[in-house]
Amino acid sequence: MNTRVAIIGGGPSGLLLSQLLHMRGIDNVVLERKTRDYVLGRIRAGVLEQGLVRLLEEAGCAGRLHAEGFVHDGTLVAYGNEIFRVDFTEHTGSPVIVYGQTEVTRDLYDAREKSGGPIEFNVEDVAIHGADTDAPHVTYAVDGTARRIDCDFVAGCDGFHGVSRQTIPLTVRREYEKIYPFGWLGILSETPPVNDELVYANSARGFALCSMRNDNLSRYYIQCSLSDSPDDWTDEAFWQELKRRIPAEQAGRLVTGPSIEKSIAPLRSFVTEPMRWGRLFLCGDAAHIVPPTGAKGLNTAASDVHYLYHALRDFYDNGSSAGIDGYSETALKRVWKAERFSWWFSSLLHRYPDQSEFDLKMQIAELDFLRSNAAAQKAMAQNYVGLPY
Ligand code: FAD
Ligand code: DHB
């Protein structure tokens, strides 16, 4: 098979790039290791920046998002006996949209299917060849049958555990990593959200977050030990712990119910450089991971897609390689800023096992400053709603 862009990975990055290129008449094929149902079963991010919303509009996939997503103009931050609100719209002119990654992915799959876009599921043994030549190709197998795609470019959108990043030789690749000494235990429950905006809480018992997907679907997280397993936590134990970590007013009106999903995510900051090797480009989690605090993972994947989409358009429409040549540097500038914000927001809100009394005082002083300082709130709001592309 021949195509212009072979896209490895059918998560949000790969699908969004595929649909955007398709809208501009640039042929592409998506190779996904799992099934569509498996990908849609993964509960992940829930907060979308305007940049991602605009890309979904351009991809013709924002109808349901605008009809069903929630516009959030601000968020609450709680610590000790204090609670304050950061108003995104007041400080930046922009809200965020609460709409689950699962729904974004479903909308993109529907659009690709409607336009007959080729997506191969259940692919195995994907390998990228000749990325440092002008004629790369990708080999893989489906049901034990070997296949090959010849292409102009390869987009590595295959997440943290994919093959694309590993294809870049270690002599070229440099990786930066920070592992956090705790995880997030998350549950999804068919209950009304406790608050109409998100609540981020720094409590003496550890971090908690109250989020949502719709009027009757809530998403809650609590900081947990890395050695915990979801089976260690009954629903009852989860709700008890959540109530002890959030402000009394919210705890008093929290509606609990059975969880329909429960999972633990480790927290990691990770960046690989460069994000391009020859004709291979990394996008999203294949190139970088952020701790989830601040919801930057999916949104940062989207900014990579934006840069790569424009670079490829420039190549095919105008014969210019400038976007392609600058892709890694341009994308990484924004990636590092999202890394900084996620690291800062995580550091502000979690309890660390080795935290000294001094460290704790610093955390509280920073929260006091944020609560009472408009400039600090503005800086937080600018990062939360998303830095410009
Ligand atoms: P992925 O979503 O990882 O998609 C990559 C795709 O590539 C997958 O479908 C995978 O099956 C496929 N693939 C992998 N290897 C191969 C291969 N060899 N061949 C073919 N296909 C392959 N972000 C937030 O902002 N907020 C959150 O609350 C949040 N929670 C998260 C919880 C978890 C458990 C995880 C893992 C991530 C979470 N994130 C969160 C991050 C966010 O979900 C990611 O940033 C986002 O999914 C990145 O999209 P992606 O398409 O780049 O990668
Ligand atoms: C969600 C996850 C986050 O990491 C975050 O900062 C906000 C919301 C969520 O899953 O809803």
TrEMBL record:
It comes from the Bacteria. Its EC number is 1.14.13.2. Signal peptide: none annotated. Pfam families: FAD_binding_3. GO terms for biological process: benzoate catabolic process. Keywords: FAD, Flavoprotein, Monooxygenase, Oxidoreductase. Residues 3-342 form the FAD-binding domain. Transmembrane segments: none annotated. The keyword Flavoprotein applies. One of its GO terms (molecular function) is FAD binding. The keyword Transferase does not apply. PANTHER family: P-HYDROXYBENZOATE HYDROXYLASE, TRK SYSTEM POTASSIUM UPTAKE PROTEIN. NCBIfam families: pbenz_hydroxyl, PRK08243.1. This is 4-hydroxybenzoate 3-monooxygenase. It comes from Pukyongiella litopenaei.
